[in-house]
TrEMBL record:
Organism of this sequence: Halorussus gelatinilyticus
Protein name, UniProt field: Kynureninase
Aminotransferase class V domain boundaries: 87-314
Catalytic activity: 3-hydroxy-L-kynurenine + H2O = 3-hydroxyanthranilate + L-alanine + H(+); L-kynurenine + H2O = anthranilate + L-alanine + H(+)
GO molecular function: kynureninase activity; pyridoxal phosphate binding
Length: 450
């Protein structure tokens, strides 16, 4: 796709929507009235499917009480594993390699700690544009082991303040590197890193490779097992649309099932003997070992509903995507895998269209996201010197976006519920805000949530 593939005008956008095989999925989401919601990379919208799954869990609690652990569908005792089975196709993993558990930051702690203990070397390679919690957790795990983070962290610098080059990451790997731990998508600019190339380069040097998929899971297909990624973490409240603070997920390559989790808890115990209450911890022999506390059913249930939408996306959208039209889903796992491919096709088209419109309609703004779709996740960073106030002015107009310092308005056309007409209208709103300097009516940023 390039600029020649797009046209200006609302009529053109409507034509694109008419040919969108996923357009009907938007009807399953609760979209706030009189708003254009473009913040799904921070918090996805609630769907009727997620709501229904939560209602089912509440009904089971009412009807079964404690018997829900064994008699619910699926039994709550295996809820994390069963949801992990359903999530596995989204990240290209075997079912045993994925489990739903904990929070993203907790999963970073347990996986970075575990893999650091079994790695050669002392250094961990990260990048300077990481989401802060990743660095907080990595530094804490180093300190727990008596290692000075200032000495053990190798921080790959950005050349332009927006992106990180693959060759710079690879050049940072040396004989004393234990692991590389990076995001799949940079949270500010939306750059999609080359997970396969980084993993291959790490393994050639005997280095472990882990990734934070928080800004890619649910909008970018992954192939973690085939690429040999050692471990990964993610949240489910962005593109997976599972609710604020929803349960997180993790992946551990089957080659590491013999590892002993650095953070042990009773929910990661071998299921067959868990209720024997032995004082000695016996971890499960798969990714389930990295569960720590009892699974919070009510914050996990919406994910079950959200995954149904991906299944339907695969069944209804795949046939219209010319590059994957010959694949016909045969079961739920195939449908989910097909669904994420169809979602990616639409996501690339929406972000490409957004970039085109910024170039054509917003001369005072700049795109800070890579233009090559192979290097772009699901959102676009639009840069303006008054980005914070621009964002506030947009919200006044009913456009929900977010700000990331120093100069980025993040705009996310989430493909399950965003249309081409939505993108056109939001750019028109942004054009009015910038051209008329409506942002001048707003104060510069203070504290609080952006």
């Amino acid at each position: 796709m390039n600029a020649d593939d797009f046209e200006l005008g609302a009529d053109y956008a409507a034509e694109r929507d008419a040919g969108d095989p996923l357009a009907h999925l938007a009807d399953r989401f609760y979209d706030p009235d009189d708003e254009w919601y473009f913040d799904g990379n921070s918090l996805g919208l609630c769907s009727a499917d997620a709501e229904a799954a939560l209602d089912r869990a509440v009904a089971e609690w009412k009807d079964l009480a404690i018997r829900g652990w064994t008699d619910a569908d699926p039994p709550w005792f295996y809820y994390g594993e069963r949801l992990g089975d359903r999530l596995a196709p989204l990240v290209g993993a075997d079912e045993s390699e994925v489990v739903v558990a904990n929070s993203t930051t907790v999963n970073i702690h347990t996986l970075v700690g575990t893999f650091y203990d079994r790695a050669e070397g002392t250094k961990i390679v990260v990048d300077e544009l990481d989401f802060p919690t990743d660095h907080y957790a990595v530094r804490a795990q180093l300190r727990q082991r008596g290692v000075d983070p200032d000495e053990a962290l190798t921080v790959v610098e950005s050349r332009d303040g927006r992106t990180v080059e693959t060759e710079d990451i690879i050049d940072a790997l040396d004989d004393d590197t234990a692991m590389v731990f990076l995001p799949s998508v940079l949270y500010r600019s939306g750059q999609l890193l080359d997970v396969a190339a980084i993993t291959e380069a790490a393994h050639e040097r005997g280095i472990l490779a882990g990734f934070d998929l928080a800004h890619s899971v649910g909008v970018v297909p992954h192939d973690l097992s085939r690429h040999g990624v050692d471990f990964a973490v993610w949240c489910s409240y962005k593109y997976l649309n599972s609710g604020p603070g929803a349960i997180a997920g993790l992946y551990v390559n089957e080659d590491h099932f013999d590892a002993r989790p650095a953070l042990a808890g009773w929910w990661g115990h071998d299921k067959e003997t868990q209720f024997e209450m032995n004082p000695t911890y016996t971890p499960a022999d798969d990714a389930g070992a990295y569960q720590i506390g009892t699974i919070p059913i009510l914050s996990a249930a919406p994910l079950a509903g959200s995954l149904e939408i991906f299944e339907d996306a695969g069944e209804t959208g795949l046939a219209a995507a010319t590059d994957v039209a010959d694949a016909t889903p045969t079961d739920a796992a195939d449908a989910v895998a097909a669904g994420i491919e169809a979602v990616r096709v639409k996501s690339v088209a929406l972000t490409e269209y957004l970039v085109f419109l910024v170039d054509e309609r917003l001369p005072d703004c700049e795109v800070g996201t890579p233009r090559d779709p192979e290097r772009r996740g699901g959102h676009v960073a639009i840069e303006h010197p008054e980005a914070y106030r621009v964002g506030e002015a947009l919200k006044e107009r009913g456009v929900v976006v977010d700000f990331r310092p120093p100069n980025v308005v993040r705009v996310c056309p989430s493909p399950l519920y965003t249309s081409f007409e939505d993108v056109w209208e939001v750019v028109e709103q942004l054009k009015r805000v910038v051209e008329n300097e409506e942002y001048e009516e707003f104060e510069t940023r203070g504290g609080g949530v952006a």
